[in-house]
Amino acid sequence: MKLTVPHMGNSYIALEALLLEMGHEVVVPPASTKKTLNLGTKYSPESACLPLKINIGNFLEAIELGAEGIIMAGGSGPCRFGYYAQVQREILKDLGHEAEVIVLEPPNENFAQLRLQIQRLFALKGMRSFWRGLQLAWEKIQAVEELESVAHYTRPREIVTGNTSHLLANSLAQLRKASSVLDIRRTLQINRDAMLEMAINETKPLRIGIVGEIYTVLEPFVNLDLEERLGHLGVEVNRTVNLVEWIRDHLVLSSLRLYKNDHLRKLAHGYLRGFVGGHGLESVAHTVMLAQQKFDGVIHILPFTCMPEIVAQSVLRHVSADYHIPILSLVVDEHTGETGFQTRLEAFVDLIGQKTEASLNVEAK
Amino acid sequence: MRIGIPRALYYYNYSPFWIRFWETLGCEVVLSSESSKSIMDWGVAHAVDGTCLPVKVYYGHVYDLVTKNVDYIFVPQLISVWKKEYICPKFMGLPDMVRWNIPNAPPILAPVIDGRKSGYQIFCAYIDLGRKFAPLYKVLQAYRNGLQAQHQFEESLAQGVPLPTLLQGEKCQASNTPRLKLGLLGHEYLIYDKMISMGVFHYLQAHNCQVLTSEQIKTSIIFQHSSKLPKRMFWTSGRQILGAAGHLCNQVDGLISLVAFGCGTDSLTTDLVQRYSRRQDIPHLLLSLDEHTGEAGLITRLEAFIDMLERRILSEIDSSAHGE
Fold first, then answer.
1. Are residues A248 and A355 located together in one domain of the fold?
2. β partners of residue A297
3. What is the Cβ-side half-sphere exposure of residue B217, based on CA atoms within 13 angstroms?
4. Does residue A179 share a domain with residue A227?
5. Which residues of chain B neighbour A90 with C-beta distances below 8 Å?
6. What per-residue confidence (pLDDT) applies to B319?
7. What's the structural domain count of chain A?
8. Which of B47, B88, B230 sits opposite A307 (nearest CB)?
9. Domain for residue A103, yes or no?
10. What is the pLDDT of residue B13?
11. Among residues A108, A99, A74, A84, which one has the least CA distance to residue A2?
12. Three-class SS state of A185
C-alpha cells in the first residue's frame, strides 16, 4: 500500500525516512500551493480551521499521485485536531475515494488499536527496521530544525539577500536524501558551516519571537513564509514552538504521563491558569519568557477561529501592556492576502525599530 | 453578600444547582438581565475578533453584572463535567478572559470544575469555594440542596417540560396536533437565548411544530447512539449533539442545526451531522448565527424549510432531502 502523510513544515523529511525504512512505498504530497488550498476549502466544512482544509488538499493531491493509505495523528481534545481524521475520513468517503485513513491515536486513548496499527505498519520488515527508521527520522528532524534556526540567525546578517534561503533549500534536499545517521550529521555540519560563513554583516538586528499555533508557525505556505519575510526585513527570528519539542513533550512524554507543564504555568501565572488545549498556554508562557529575555517584539500567529489561541490572544494584549513588549497577532485563513500581510509586517518592524532606537537614545542621555 | 451569575453559556445547564447552592449559603443571587442588543454590542466591542458569539455575549452579561453592584461574579472554570471529556478550550480559559477584558470587575469566583477523572474533584471544588462563605456543615447542605434542585430540573426536562418554562417560567404551549416534528440541535445557550437565536425555538412552537431537543433525551440513549461513532467524541456538547442526531433522525421530519459562527466544536460536529443525515435522506437545515444575522433572513429560511417538509409529506413523492 502506498502511504502518504500531510504536510507540516519540513516534517515530511523525517516521516518519509521512517516509512521508507519500514519498507513502505511513500507518496509525499506536492508542497502546498494555492491549488492545495482551493481543493481543501472546496471540500471541507466552511468553518473548520485552516489546517484541516490544507490537510484535505494534501490528501487529494497525494491520492491523485496514487496514494492508497493516509497516516494521520489523533488526539483526545480539547483542540479540534483530535477529531480531524474522523471528519477527513468522511469527507474522502463522500467524495468517493477509497484511500484508507490510518489514525494513530495516543496510547491513553485506545492502546489496543494503536498497537494493531503499528504492528501493521512494521509488518513488512519487522521491529529492527522500525527502530532504525525511528532513529533516522529523529536525527533528520533535529537536523532540519537546527538548520532552520541557523537560517534565522544568518538571514538578517547575509550580504546578498536570499542566499540563506537558497542554501537552506539545498541542504534540506540533501538531508532528505541522506540515508544514514552519519550521512545526516555530515550534511548538517557542512551546511551549517556554509551558512554561518555568510553571516558577516555586523549589524545588530532586531529580535522578534514567534509564538502561536504550531501548524501555522511551522508551515511556510500557511504563514506566507513569515520567517523568511522577517529575515529579509532584517529581523532575527526566534521560533518558540518546534517539532522536536512537540514530539518529545506532547507525543512521547505526555502519553507516558511524564510531561509536566509546571514551568509554563509558572511563566503564564497571573494571565492563564493552565492548559487550554493546543498551544494556548505555550503562547502566553513563551511571550512572557521572550519579554523577560528583552526581545524587541512578538508575533502571535493563529488560524482563524482557533479555540486555544483565541484564549491566549485575549490575555496577550495585557502581557504586552505589562511588559512593554509589542505584540502583533496575525490571524490566517484561506483569504489571507500577501500584500496586506507584508504591509503589516513592515509596519510592525518599523515601529519596533523606532521604539528600540528611542529607548537607546534615552539610555544614552 | 451579592453573587452575580451571568445569564449565558452554562447558565442554561447548571443554574438550578448554582442558584440553590448560593442561596443556601445565605447569599443573594443576582442574575444579569436577559440578553439584549446593548449587552451583545458591549461584548462584541470588547472581545478579541475571532471569539465566538456566545462568549462575546457572555462578556456583555458580566459587564451587566458589574453595573449591578454585585460583590462577586461567579465564573466557574469548566474544564470537564464528564469523565474523559472536555467542554471547549474557551470554557477552560473563561475566568482569565473575563478577568483581563472587563474593566472594574469585582472579584471573580472561579472554582476549577474538572471532572475528567471523577466527580469527586467537582465536589471538592464547590466545597472549597463554599468554605470561604460559610462553615462546612452549611456548605455540605448547600451542595446537597443544589444537587437536588439540579436533579429535579433534569427530570422535568426528561419529561418534556421546555427549558424556558423551567428557568424563566415562560409559557411554551406545545400544540397537541403538530403539523411537523422537528429536531433542533445545538447548544442550550444558543437555542434558548432569544437574542442570539432570534427566537427560533419559540418561532417553531408558535408555528405548530413539535420541537425535540437534545436535553430532553436520556443520557443512556445519547450514549447508545454516540458510541456508534468510529471514535469517541471528546466534547460533552458534541457527544450530546451527535447522540441526539442519531436518536432523532428516525422519528422527525427534519433536523435543524443551530450553530454559532466561530464555534470550534460545532464546525466539526455539525459537519458530521450533515453528512450522516444526507446519507439517510433526512432533510437538514444549518442555521449559522453571528452578530450580523438578520431576523428576516432567518425566518425566511425557516419558512422555506417548513414548507418544503410539508410538501414532501403531502406529495409522498420521495423528493430529495437536499435538492439534488
1. yes
2. A208
3. 26
4. no
5. 271-272, 275
6. 58
7. 3
8. B88
9. yes
10. 93
11. A99
12. helix
Q: Which of A93, A125, A157 is the last residue of a domain?
A: A125
Under DSSP, the state recorded for B231 is S
> Buried b vs exposed e over B178-216: b needs ≥16 C-beta within 10 Å?
bebebbbbbbbbbbbbbebbbbbbbbbbeeebbbbbbbb
Which candidate from A49, A276, A331 shows the least CB-CB separation from B93? A276
Ranges in chain B, pLDDT < 70:
174, 316-324
Q: Which domain holds residue A106?
A: 2-125
* Cα–Cα distance list, B299 to B51, B54, B68 (Å): 25, 21, 34
Distance CA B194, CA B65 (A): 19
**The domain boundary residue, chosen from A183, A203, A223:** A203
ipTM of the complex, rounded to two decimals = 0.91
Q: Do B264 and A306 touch (CB under 8 A)?
A: yes
pLDDT at position B272: 95
Q: Is B281 left (phi over 0), alpha (psi -120 to 50) or beta?
A: left
Same domain, A38 and A143: no
Residues in A touching B83 (Cβ below 8 Å):
none
pLDDT digit string (tens) for A111-159? 888 888 888 877 777 788 888 999 999 999 999 999 999 999 999 998 8
A233 with A341, same domain? yes
User: CATH no. for residue A299?
Assistant: 3.40.50.11900
The reply to whether A291 and A193 lie within a common domain is no
Amino acid symbol at A333: D
Does A32 share its domain with A71?
A: yes
Residues A238 and A321 occupy one common structural domain: yes
For the cut 60, the answer to whether the pLDDT of residue A171 exceeds it is: yes
Interface contact A42, partner B, CB < 8 A: no
Q: How far is CA A81 from CA A53, A87, A201, A221, B72, in A?
A: 12, 10, 42, 19, 36
In this predicted model, what pLDDT tens digit does every residue of A41-92 receive, in sequence order?
999 998 999 999 999 999 999 999 999 999 998 888 789 999 999 999 999 9
Q: Are residues A222 and A352 in the same domain?
A: yes
For residue A100, the domain's CATH number is 3.40.50
A131 within domain boundaries: no
Please say if the pLDDT value at position A365 is more than 80. no
pTM for this entry: 0.92
Which residues are registered as beta bridge partners of A195? none
Computed from CA positions of residues A164, A169, A174, A178, in that sequence, does the dihedral angle turn out positive or negative? Answer: positive
